[in-house]
Design goal:
The structure is a homodimer. Chain A is α/β, with parallel strands linked by helices. Chain A has 13 helices and 13 strands.
Chain lengths: 402, 402
């Protein structure tokens, strides 16, 4: 019988796909490690098959996959030179099928859904997770519910709506909507694979394994990850905990979770040494994809970060936009503001921390910039205007200018 | 000394990076095949290194790459079942670094630029090629000129402008702008890597080699490709010509080029049995990325298609939008309208052609749907509205409805 564990109460419970929360403390539960020895299968093309020993799946149905993962790790040479940094790598999750890391999690949750015979799935999201869940739901032929905030923009509705899910705009508190979705999901047999879904989190582990192999089995000194609800960083930390448990690694990376200052309940709790996250009233940041004022995985992130000697930082919108620009101008990589927090966080840390020349730093870029192109409308771009007859003069002056 | 060949005049000329056109007939020239025997290096992770024997490069500088390529080939099971088709696969070029196939070509052209010591590059484009060239130019630290139509939308300006190229809007005929860019580029040492650039075209060959290996060295019966200026299909056809020349394959795939009816000068010439493409006056289609009324590679595409027994089809905007919807709803893949022409073309061909049960069909999806989300604003999506207190009723009726 499949189980979930509460890492707070240190107890296991039978899996209830409709409510993955601890009956005692209400924290999200996670998939426990199996008893058997685990290994990688490097000959497999699909990351799900390559790392199946580390996933709560007994077989992979490739028909459900959109071939997520296998994303590049890109060395940022010009950035390193410009900022005098040790080796910095960007794990480019923006090239996943729906342009965000969410596909990693959805891919695993959808395998679980189909293996359990579930016919209806859902999610509560306004952005990346909505399109990802709708896309995988379409691919699997499942009826997919997407519950959205009332004020969701047309752009975001379309990015999920194109896959033809059941779209429902809900007036009222978004935090409550998250918890209510499980109650109504159970009643109507809809598996809500929301942000802290335990199978989703297992999918994020794969990114950690890929980073480890792409660095030729070296452990990076730092891994920077944007933090919102808490699922992504939980998965990444657990990837390295798994490797340690199996004796594959001895050292552990320092995880740096980064939040946007305008919505940083986890960073606030971390800074003040609290063990519990306090919800904030209102998010106010350009980094919408990581603006969860009431993060369901907040306490779990605090626990994992404290146990594993990580940090949680916050960065301002100005620092975020500056980092977004730097990544594009120096390295040709265009991320969402939420993703750019990782570079902003690195710049902030580098003011205090003295890096060694061989320290390896990994920035996890979570979502593509095209998804949030509207946030750039205030972005100042120089546009030169000319006509065909004056083109030569224009090019001449621009080519030889500075 | 490096050369280019004219496949019309069957002559070779010394490479002039600033003007890759035949001095006699003015057609675009291509990179000739080397004399040596060529092979694949399957152990290499980078596609450029894997297929270097087939590329006009003597070594690969991985620092210039954004790790383009290695894109998935996805079997479209639900589509096949719904439409009673033999095996259909989608080559998903939308997951390239800037979300289009252009990155394949830019990646090779940028290698060539840097190896020649070039410091300024440029392109004439309004869409996919603009962002791709600007991104790779930024990554390489080159000054990058992007020449655009006067009426280019802010969205497209931003998608290229984020990389900080020199953006120039030019009033006047777009076809003339294409040719003038070479003249001014030579004068001011700017390598314009435009749509029919011979090195760009060599980059597109890599997609063909990947398809061949992903199908386990079977030759698909049909390969569908959107056609605009002509560079992409030229590269893909040449990939299989290379394989034939090396004796690696005997059979040849049937290439089906697909144009949007509102801008289909190549399809018109093909249908009427002409050898030369006649420019049309005005493009009128939703598939902007393939709306070139005066395609510089048009005659080359006609020649390659006729010599290799392919076809050029056209499809209406309605068929395009229907195909875009089908790919998203049935398979979870969200493409640009331009990309969706390939499925529209397949549906059209399937009305006449009797497929065998083992025929393999490949659709090349060229660019991501998020780039053109504005074209969906007329798209009808059902949005249900409710409030937290009525959510249970709403979910109940939607879950059990049809």
């Amino acid at each position: 019988m499949e189980k979930l564990e509460c890492i707070f109460c240190k107890k296991e419970y039978l899996l209830d796909i409709f409510s993955p929360f601890c009956p005692e403390c209400n924290e999200p539960m996670l998939c426990p490690a199996p008893q058997k020895k685990r290994t990688f299968y490097p000959g497999k093309a699909s990351p799900l098959e390559k790392f199946i020993d580390f996933l709560p799946l007994s077989k992979i149905n490739l028909d459900l996959s959109l071939k997520e993962g296998n994303t590049p790790l890109i060395r940022l040479n010009r950035l390193m030179d410009n900022l005098n940094l040790p080796p910095v790598f960007l794990k480019n999750e923006t090239v996943n099928p729906t342009s965000s890391f969410k596909d990693r999690g959805t891919a695993v949750a959808i395998q679980k859904a189909v293996s359990l015979g579930i016919e209806k799935i859902g999610t509560v999201s306004t952005g990346n997770m909505a399109s990802s869940t709708a896309a995988y739901g379409a691919r699997a032929g499942l009826k997919t519910f997407v519950l959205l905030k009332e004020e969701t923009s047309l752009e975001k509705l379309l990015a999920a709506g194109i896959y033809n899910p059941v779209l429902v705009k809900v007036k009222g508190d978004y935090g409550q909507l998250f918890y209510k979705s499980f109650a109504y999901g159970r009643k109507h047999n809809i598996y809500f694979m929301n942000s802290m879904d335990p199978f989703r989190i297992e999918g994020y582990k794969v990114t950690g394994f890929e980073i480890f192999l792409q660095l030729e089995k070296r452990i990076p000194k730092f891994i920077f990850v944007p933090v919102s609800s808490g699922g992504h960083i939980t998965g990444l930390v657990r990837a390295f905990l798994d490797l340690k448990k199996e004796g594959i690694i001895q050292k552990f990376p320092t995880f740096i979770g980064v939040q946007a200052r305008g919505c940083s309940p986890i960073a606030q709790a971390y800074t003040t040494g609290k063990l519990k996250v306090k919800r904030i009233n209102k998010a106010n940041t350009i980094a919408h994809s990581i603006a969860n004022p009431d993060p369901p995985g907040g306490n779990m992130v605090l626990k994992l970060i404290q146990e594993n000697k990580g940090k949680i930082l916050d960065v301002s919108d100005e620092e975020i936009l500056n980092a977004q620009k730097m990544l594009a101008e120096l390295e040709g990589i265009f991320c969402q503001p939420a993703s750019s927090t990782v570079l902003a966080g690195l710049l902030k840390l580098s003011e205090k921390e003295k890096f060694e020349v061989n320290d390896q730093i990994v920035l996890v870029a979570t979502g593509g910039g095209l998804k949030t192109i509207k946030t750039l409308e205030s972005f100042k771009i120089d546009i030169h205007q000319t006509s065909l007859s004056k083109l030569e003069n224009t090019i001449s002056s621009l080519a030889h200018g500075t």
